[in-house]
Amino acid sequence: MALYPHTVGVDLGQSRDFTSVAILQEAYWLTAKQAWLMGRPEEAGWVWPSQLPSTACIAEARSLNYYHGRPPNPPLALVHLERYELHTPYPEIVQGVGKLIQTPPLRLEVTPLIVDGTGVGAPVVDMMRQAGLGPTSVTITAGFTVSRDPEDGSFRVPKRDLISTMSVLLEQHRLRIPTSLPNADLLTRELQEFRRTVTKVGNDTYAAERDRHDDMVLSIALAAWHREHHNGLIEQQLATLEQQRGRIAETEERANQLAIQNARR
User: What is the pLDDT of residues 141-155, one digit of tens each?
Assistant: First the structure.
């Protein structure tokens, strides 16, 4: 399971809203020694891929993080946010997303494309699949449980999970949103207008107020949720690798001690 640096989130806005596309970038961890060996001693700690001078350095940092471990909870940065005009034809959106995901530093084969497959989103996801973009469909639900279809890799995710993931990232200052980013002001307004509402039967709903928009919030939330879900799996794998290394080290130590005892006889 690769530690890819970017994730693309697409909220299709359904019938009344805009379509928005967000790209998140995740930082890599470099120890002081690793940074020095890479010739980047000033880059120790969390390092954005865009700070590294070459694709070779990015690949090395990714390898180091996967095989040698890293601290949990890496920071994320919003590096791209765009909104399509209302009623933009879906084939045009598919074409635009396809061009974006193949524009360096993004790479189609390693960049997850997370698309809202709710309602009218399902046929658009199919169009993206036919275009070879390899989207992961996320159907946004009002439930409480995340589920994954093993056949096509699609997810069903409660909206509360998407929004709470983004809220935690913001509260922990792990999601950086540059004020210089186009549409940053609009995004700030969406975040301020996003509301949690409890229905009469006790369910909670999350959406912008009437006649307001939440497409940019959801495009980021889709990418952020998938990023955190993936990182949870990575942390499990890293823990398993560490346990394996520990068992190997114990075995080697016992073998060494036995060889020393035998040599003294």
Answer: 988 899 999 998 999
Distance CA 192, CA 186 (A): 10
Taking the C-alpha atoms of residue 103 and residue 250, their distance in angstroms, rounded to an integer, is: 47
pLDDT higher than threshold 60 for residue 64: yes
E strand spans, the chain? 6-11, 19-26, 28-30, 45-47, 76-84, 113-116, 135-141, 147-148, 155-158, 175-176, 194-198, 204-208
Residues 86, 18 contacting (CB under 8 angstroms)? yes
Q: How many independent structural domains does the chain possess?
A: 2
Rounded distance between C-alpha atoms, residue 163 and residue 232, angstroms: 17
* pTM listed for this prediction: 0.82
Q: Are residues 59 and 92 in the same domain?
A: no
Q: Is 160 contained in some domain?
A: yes
Q: Which residue in 110, 105, 121 sits closest to 157, CA to CA?
A: 121
Q: Domain check: are 99 and 61 in the same one?
A: no
Residues 55 and 167 placed together within one structural domain of the fold: no
Q: What's the CA gap between 138 and 158, in Å, rounded?
A: 10
Backbone phi and psi for residue 235, each to the nearest 5 degrees, phi listed first: -60, -40
**Measured in Å, how far apart are the chain's first and last C-alpha atoms?**
48
Q: Looking at the structure, tell me whether residues 124 and 59 fall in a common domain.
A: no
